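User: For this week's homework, look closely at the record that follows, marking any run of repeated tokens, and judge whether sequence predicts the tokens.
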Amino acid sequence: MENVLLLGLSAPADDDPYGDPLLRALSAPGASGTRLVVSTAPSVLARASSEIIAPSHPVADALRQMASLADGVIITTPETHAAPPASLRTLLNWLTWPTEGSPLIGKPVAVITTSTAPATEPDAYCETERMLFTAGATLIGPRTVVPRVDRVLREEPDGQVAFSDPGAAVRLLFHVHRTAAAAREHSGLPPADDFRPWLL
């Protein structure tokens, strides 16, 4: 069975200490027929202009190419009423503008937000979702909000990241599964096999 390729994007640790570990936890062991490749928006993008003035940026161009090759995208960002971290916001600008050439047009994209605070009632849409919607991406939502993310993840002695909260893990894995299913349909791939072993 052909794998569906999902690209996981997060801000660098200085801007978001939980995004990359969360994606790495989701990337292993991986669902049957699904491959999640994790990448962070380099800090250099935080220093680049958030206004699209230059025609290209080599780092953003490389990630834009990765997004073009992926069947779907998963983005993690802190849960906030404000814009996402500067590096991620700038990357999203390059990925979504100009709209005519954006690799995200019609592509299934899931948004996961994290918070160290207890669960609260989130806004209907976060700024990252608004940016993606405007760019013509297919949002696979509603987004999954992970409260107390500092208690949900744990780093293993071998450097791997695991979930310490089974409930949060199941909610996240279902969101990834729905995104992968939409990516399969969008890419014309056959449905995946039963994904339940992924949850064991």
In short: The first strand starts at residue 4 and ends at 10.
